[in-house]
Task: inverse folding
């Protein structure tokens, strides 16, 4: 499923004939007309490629076409974004899976109801660590006795920590926690650490500056295409306004199709929110992982990730199922796919959902 590349060429040929890919920038009049009766929605995001479904849905007018007047609100990290959700400053956002599991375990009344970023982290090392070693022999064992910089308890950190524990390396690989990816990257550049687990776009910047991607988190055995950021909202809000959040998901599903079929335009949309040079951004968005974003809530993936957090002793066991729901996504995907039943992207999403629900 290498980024569903097998689908891409045929999708580009079919693009003009299939529904659901109208561009908002080319339909300003329609969007302005729709906004007169649209529902306001404040959406929190981080300036990272993995949040591209928001950027595409906004820039291509898909939110407006679904009757939503969306304001995108930028945050620097997940905890302040979650605080904004609970205080009512935003209505929905894409939050880190680790933070969401922790919040749910602490009894916060949130519900994960959709997907955003998938994988997206790279294990970055100094080139001398792999000098003379064939790439097929690169593995986590090369970091035995080394220091790895990580950002808090983000998903990449948990995936690699769980993998290290399975290899019996939990005591010999030292994970050093930093406030954010920028701090971890700067520590690597200052030779304070031997490696760093960096999310987009820092892994691009690191590779461009001569560091080596030992592996990408979405390829770690047992955690392939692991969940990263998830769509979440207050449970009460979802119960009070299900139609609004279903419309929100329909826009993201259509944005996923655009991402799969319009790579050049997608990169332009992402660049509005992520200040990274185009060629490097394209690597992070399309080359490093099988896919960097998917709107599916991936209940199985969230449950597996919860298990990894328990396994690595970051959370105590609790019933996470109460905070996960695929109900609105089921409805949204069924509605979108029904309008284009032969669309291979929507058919892929239906198949994917059937395996991950």
Result:
């Amino acid at each position: 499923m290498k980024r569903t590349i097998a689908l891409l060429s045929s999708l580009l040929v079919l693009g003009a004939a299939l529904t659901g890919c109208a561009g908002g920038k080319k339909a300003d009049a329609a969007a302005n007309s729709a906004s007169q009766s649209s529902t306001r929605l404040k959406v929190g995001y981080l300036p990272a490629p993995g949040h591209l479904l928001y950027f595409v849905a906004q820039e291509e007018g898909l939110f407006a076409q679904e009757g939503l007047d969306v304001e995108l609100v930028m945050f620097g990290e997940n905890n302040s974004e979650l605080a904004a959700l609970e205080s009512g400053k935003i209505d929905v956002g894409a939050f880190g899976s680790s933070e969401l599991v922790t919040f749910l375990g602490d009894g916060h009344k949130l519900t994960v109801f959709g997907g955003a970023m998938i994988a997206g982290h790279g294990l970055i090392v100094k080139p001398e660590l792999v000098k003379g070693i064939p790439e097929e022999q690169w593995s986590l064992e090369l970091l035995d006795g080394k220091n790895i910089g990580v950002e808090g308890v983000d998903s990449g950190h948990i995936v690699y920590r769980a993998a290290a524990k399975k290899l019996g390396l939990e005591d010999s690989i030292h994970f050093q926690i930093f406030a954010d990816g920028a701090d971890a990257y700067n520590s690597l550049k200052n030779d304070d650490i031997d490696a760093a687990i960096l999310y987009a776009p820092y892994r691009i910047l690191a590779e461009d500056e001569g560091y080596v991607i030992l592996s990408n988190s979405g390829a770690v055995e047992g955690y392939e295409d692991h969940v990263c950021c998830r769509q979440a909202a207050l449970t009460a809000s979802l119960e009070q306004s299900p139609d609004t959040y279903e419309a929100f998901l329909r826009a993201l599903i259509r944005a996923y199709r655009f991402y799969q079929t319009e790579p050049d335009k997608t990169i332009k949309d992402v660049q509005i929110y992520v200040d990274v040079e185009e060629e490097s951004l394209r690597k992070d968005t399309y080359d490093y992982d099988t896919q960097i974003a998917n709107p599916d809530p991936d209940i199985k993936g969230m449950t597996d990730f919860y298990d990894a957090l328990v396994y690595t002793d970051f959370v105590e066991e609790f019933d996470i199922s109460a905070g996960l729901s695929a109900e609105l996504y089921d409805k949204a995907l069924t509605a979108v796919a029904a309008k284009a039943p032969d669309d291979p992207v929507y058919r892929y999403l239906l198949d994917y959902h059937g395996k991950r629900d």
Observations:
- Strands lie at 39-45, 68-74, 92-95, 110-115, 121-125, 147-151, 174-178, 195-199, 212-216, 230-234.
